[in-house]
């Protein structure tokens, strides 16, 4: 068991992020076997990431702004929050902390991968801290808990507590007036089955004609396949043509693309790129805005299989408000204008969604995203927060385009 041998990463003043490669040289790690050392690297890396995520989400540059050097009755669990365990997180944390005298409650916010445990008194919190910090926690598969004392007044969720999964804290809404269109039952069940059968058929054909390999690419836990153009996940722009399943959109997509245009004529898309994504249960896509300079205004997402919750947030805001939208199978989502350019969207990586107070298990989901490539690689939107028009990578892509034109 590694226990206390794992280096402590948080130093006051500034957060000290340990370079995991330094561990190789440390006297302690030399006594460990290769396997133990690999495990130590992994734990250390995860811990670095947990601190960095918390700083980023709270919008602060240094750990000293978040954590208190003095013990307090409120403990932050830096590396456990609402995530893959979904609502269970609350119960598991309660189980872990309620073993100690003076435990009052845990606070978990559905948007945050960290959480808080509150005790009646500072001395009771200190006893729990001493027992739990940096120790394997049986409730979380023996993960080492990373704890810090905090002053509650600086965390919005400790002063005003949203119920996990509730939408009460939403300060803004997204609707048609802001460019979000949601059309339930855009295709019928029969059409959904037909499209899924075409997807399977294409895969079988690829395997038989490509010496046993298909055109799916794995991105984190999900699988993607591109038609028309491929996508480069580094540059967030059009990628290598060899990575497409075909340079044409599939024939079977024509009918629903036409229907899309009829549905909302003002947002006719004339798409030249189609991406199929397959999400096994628990998979998701992290918060992002589809590059402004890579694609034109309207983005369309057709959902199939199991329903899933999509979250939207405005970037940069301290304790960003979240808007959640349930994407039902067979629905079509259109993101245009403000909803497309000024909000980030994500599908959280977790196995359950909380919908109307009930836990819903996720099963397999497919989505088809339809876009038009922005040939100029330029954007002059009025939403600069998320605009990549001036990004160095984009300037380089534009320069290359001009060079090719000359
Ligand atoms: O799969 C989805 O529903 C959304 C996918 C998405 O946001 C994207 O590919 O940019
Ligand atoms: Fe997206």
UniProtKB/TrEMBL annotation:
Domain of life of the native organism: Eukaryota
Family matches, as PROSITE patterns: FE2OG_OXY (PS51471)
An example Gene Ontology molecular-function term: nucleic acid binding
Family matches, as InterPro entries: AlkB-like, AlkB-like_sf, ALKBH4, Nucleotide-bd_a/b_plait_sf, Oxoglu/Fe-dep_dioxygenase_dom, RBD_domain_sf
Residues in Fe2OG dioxygenase domain copies: 270-374
GO term, biological process aspect, one: demethylation
Identification of the protein by name: Fe2OG dioxygenase domain-containing protein
Organism of this sequence: Coemansia aciculifera
Phylogenetic placement of the source organism: Eukaryota, Fungi, Fungi incertae sedis, Zoopagomycota, Kickxellomycotina
């Amino acid at each position: 068991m590694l226990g206390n041998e794992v280096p402590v990463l948080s130093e006051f003043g500034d957060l000290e992020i340990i370079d995991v490669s330094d561990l190789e040289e440390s006297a302690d790690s030399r006594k460990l076997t290769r396997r133990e050392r690999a495990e130590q690297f992994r734990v250390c890396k995860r811990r670095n990431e947990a601190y960095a995520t918390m700083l980023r989400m709270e919008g602060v540059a240094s750990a000293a702004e978040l954590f208190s050097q003095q013990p307090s009755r409120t403990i932050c669990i830096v590396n456990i929050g609402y995530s893959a365990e979904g609502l269970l997180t609350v119960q598991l944390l309660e189980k872990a902390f309620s073993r100690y005298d003076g435990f009052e409650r845990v606070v978990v916010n559905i948007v945050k991968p960290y959480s808080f445990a509150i005790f009646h008194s500072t001395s009771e919190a200190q006893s729990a801290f001493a027992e739990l910090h940096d120790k394997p926690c049986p409730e979380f598969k023996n993960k080492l808990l990373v704890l810090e004392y905090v002053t509650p007044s600086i965390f919005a969720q400790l002063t005003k507590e949203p119920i996990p999964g509730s939408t009460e804290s939403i300060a803004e809404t997204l609707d048609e007036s802001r460019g979000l269109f949601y059309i339930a039952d855009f295709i019928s069940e029969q059409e959904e089955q037909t499209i899924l059968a075409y997807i399977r058929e294409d895969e079988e054909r690829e395997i038989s004609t490509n010496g046993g390999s298909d055109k799916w690419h794995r991105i984190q836990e999900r699988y993607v396949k591109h038609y028309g153009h491929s996508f480069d996940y580094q540059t967030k722009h059009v990628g290598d043509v060899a990575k497409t399943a075909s340079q044409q959109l599939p024939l079977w997509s024509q009918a629903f693309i036409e229907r899309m245009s009829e549905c909302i004529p003002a947002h006719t898309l004339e798409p030249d790129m189609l991406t199929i994504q397959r999400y096994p249960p628990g998979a998701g896509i992290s918060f992002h805005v589809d590059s402004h300079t890579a694609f034109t205004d309207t983005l369309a997402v057709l959902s199939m299989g199991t329903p899933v919750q999509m979250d939207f947030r405005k970037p940069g805001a301290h304790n960003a408000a979240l808007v959640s939208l349930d994407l039902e199978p067979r629905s079509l989502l259109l993101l245009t204008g403000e909803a497309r350019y000024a909000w980030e969207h994500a599908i959280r990586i977790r196995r359950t969604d909380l919908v109307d107070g009930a836990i819903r298990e996720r099963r397999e989901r497919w989505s088809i995203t339809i876009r038009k490539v922005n040939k100029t690689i330029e954007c002059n939107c009025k939403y600069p927060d998320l605009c990549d028009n001036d990004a160095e990578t984009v300037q380089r892509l534009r320069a290359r385009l001009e060079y090719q034109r000359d």
